[in-house]
Design brief:
alpha/beta; 334 residues; 43% helix; 9 strands; 11 helices
Length: 334
């Protein structure tokens, strides 16, 4: 039976812009949060790539990775993830190769195959690639592995910086597709259960069953996304979670906004089907006081057998967000 004491904790940050705050405020909060996570012993801190979305300031992901790495000492910092349909692999290899030279042994590169935005914005990001095929993502992943690996005899295109840095590549997914590819390539796998928990078990089971050892990984390694709202009591956690409920409701209804302050009884104002949709979205969430958080994290660990949890913590008050991480860390240390 896996134990919380042996579980690695990490964090994913979309760098939420809060209602009444600025982008500069959001970037400063992200750095303070990363420094706090590092002090708590978290393993890694990842930034997510999204574009043209109200209230999310993580679009220039590689720039933010460098900013967070510069403000921390030993925390692994990375992309969770870079959305490959938006970028030429050479550009990604050069950016993360540069980061790896600046911060040796501390940079991760998570890769996703979704655009992380709407189709019109995807076209604006990469105008020469308007027609996607199912073969693009595996080919781009393979190209990135080559560009970040040792220079081969006769290799005509070299990422400089990048070549030889061997930046660790993770595959991210919310379906079975990336699970199968990660297994075939022998790469670590991160499942996006923080917003798509329904396929968690089929994807992880497929990944483990089909895993082939590689030069970078001898056995399967699974990280899962976990929405976390921890507070001094269950009632306070539920109130703080209303900011997350508002955010998810905005995503599902197509009306995104900045991260809102807590709204008492927010869920009571919604239709039953709206509450159900939010519940499905947050099916892997752990929300509560210290005891409930400990039980919730342990239940999720026993259910998933994950090697690592990547926490997503959308709390409006930055100080209470840090306290939430404290409670999670304490739950895993007890």
């Amino acid at each position: 039976m896996p134990s919380l004491q042996n579980l690695a904790l990490s964090m994913l940050d979309l760098v939420a812009v809060r209602e009444g705050g600025s982008v500069a405020d959001a970037l400063a909060i992200a750095l303070r949060t990363a420094q706090h996570a590092e002090a708590l012993g978290f393993r890694r801190y990842w930034l997510a790539e999204h574009h043209n979305m109200e209230g999310i300031a993580s679009s220039a992901t590689a720039v933010l990775v460098g900013h967070i790495a510069a403000g921390t000492q030993h925390l692994r910092v990375g992309a969770g993830g870079i959305m490959l349909p938006n970028h030429a692999p050479l550009v990604v290899a050069e950016a993360f190769g540069t980061l790896a030279e600046l911060y040796p042994g501390r940079i991760d590169l998570g890769l996703g195959r979704a655009p992380g935005t709407d189709r019109l914005t995807m076209h604006a990001l990469r105008r020469d690639r308007l027609a996607e095929t199912e073969h693009d993502f595996p080919r781009d992943v393979a190209e990135l592995q080559t560009l970040l690996g040792p220079i081969q005899p006769g290799q005509q295109i070299v990422a400089m910086p990048g070549a030889g840095t061997q930046v660790p590549i993770w595959l991210l997914g919310s379906s079975l597709y990336s699970a199968q590819l990660a297994a075939e390539r022998g790469l670590p796998y991160a499942f996006a259960s923080h917003f798509a928990p329904r396929l968690l078990h089929p994807a992880v089971d497929m990944y483990r069953a089909r895993f082939r050892p590689s030069d970078v990984l001898a056995k399967p390694y699974v990280m899962i996304g976990v929405p976390l709202i921890a507070a001094a009591s269950d009632d306070e956690a539920e109130l703080l979670a209303s900011s997350t409920y508002q955010r998810v409701h905005g995503i599902l209804s197509g009306h995104r906004s900045r991260l809102q302050p807590p709204a008492p009884h927010f869920m009571d104002q919604l239709l039953p089907q709206q509450r159900a949709a939010i519940g499905d979205f947050l099916g892997a969430a752990v929300i509560g006081g210290p005891d409930k958080v400990r039980r919730g994290l342990n239940a999720l660990l026993q259910d998933s057998q994950a090697d690592e949890f990547m926490l997503v913590c959308d709390i409006y008050d930055p100080a209470l967000r840090l306290r939430s991480l404290d409670i999670a860390a304490a739950a895993c240390a007890a």
